[in-house]
């Protein structure tokens, strides 16, 4: 807050419920006054930003004329940098959607993204921030625990998945 002459000037935005008009608390996902579930049309802005950065990387690599393995290695390297460097949002809904966006990229039972380890590190970072933002929401914390369990697997599970994807591996392991 600052003063100009005799008038006070307040900075910031007061969010109001679209249903009842009550002021909303920071990070609210439900209106405390009427129970209206809030959704932000810009909630995917973080994911949109990541996808746009990936598109820029793809265009840059294409413009450099790289082909084959060199192209794939450069894409992998540059996408890893985008994943590591993009800022984690503070908005609760963005955090939650980002977790749901990242999780399939690192689940062992799904074909993992080539940058799975970078995604895994970012997932841990986003998860920590989401747990803090939702610290008073036991239902959301329970969903976050489920997401975390889904990305964890033991060596045996990983071997089973790899064997399904590559029958030659099964033959080699069977011969040993």
Count of individual helical segments: 7
Overall pLDDT metric: 79
Query: Largest sheet, order of strands side by side?
Result: 1-2
Cα radius of gyration in angstroms: 22 Å
Instruction: Report the helical percentage.
Output: 55-70%
In total, how many beta strands? 2
Unreliable parts: none
SSE sequence, one letter per element: EEHHHHHHH
Distance between the termini: 73 Å
Question: What amount of the residues lies in strands?
Answer: under 5%
Structural class: mainly alpha
Major sheet, described briefly? 2 strands, antiparallel
Shape: flat
Concise structural overview:
The chain has helices at 45-63, 68-85, 92-106, 116-133, 138-151, 155-165, 167-175; strands at 2-4, 7-9.
Structure description:
With 176 residues, the chain is mainly α. The protein is 59% helix and 3% strand. The chain has seven helices and two strands, in the order ββααααααα. The protein has helices at 45-63, 68-85, 92-106, 116-133, 138-151, 155-165, 167-175, and strands spanning 2-4, 7-9. Strand 1 and strand 2 form a beta hairpin. It is flat and about 60 Å long. The termini are far apart. 12% of the residues are buried.
What tags apply to this protein structure?
176 residues, two-stranded antiparallel ribbon, 7 helices, 59% helix, flat
């Amino acid at each position: 807050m600052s003063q100009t002459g005799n008038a006070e000037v307040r900075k910031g935005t007061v969010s109001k419920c679209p249903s009842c008009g009550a002021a909303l608390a920071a990070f609210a996902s439900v209106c405390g006054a009427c129970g209206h579930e809030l959704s932000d049309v810009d909630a995917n802005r973080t994911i949109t930003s990541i996808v746009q950065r990936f598109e820029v990387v793809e265009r840059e690599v294409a413009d450099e004329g790289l082909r084959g393995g060199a192209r794939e290695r450069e894409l992998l390297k540059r996408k890893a940098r985008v994943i590591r460097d993009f800022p984690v949002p503070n908005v609760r809904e963005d955090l939650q959607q980002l977790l749901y966006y990242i999780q399939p990229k690192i689940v062992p039972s799904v074909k993992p993204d080539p940058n799975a380890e970078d995604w895994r590190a970012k997932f841990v970072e986003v998860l920590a921030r989401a747990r803090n933002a939702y610290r008073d929401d036991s239902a959301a914390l329970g969903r976050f625990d489920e997401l975390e369990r889904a990305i964890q697997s033991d060596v045996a599970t990983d071997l089973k998945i790899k064997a399904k994807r590559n029958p030659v591996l099964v033959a080699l392991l069977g011969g040993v």
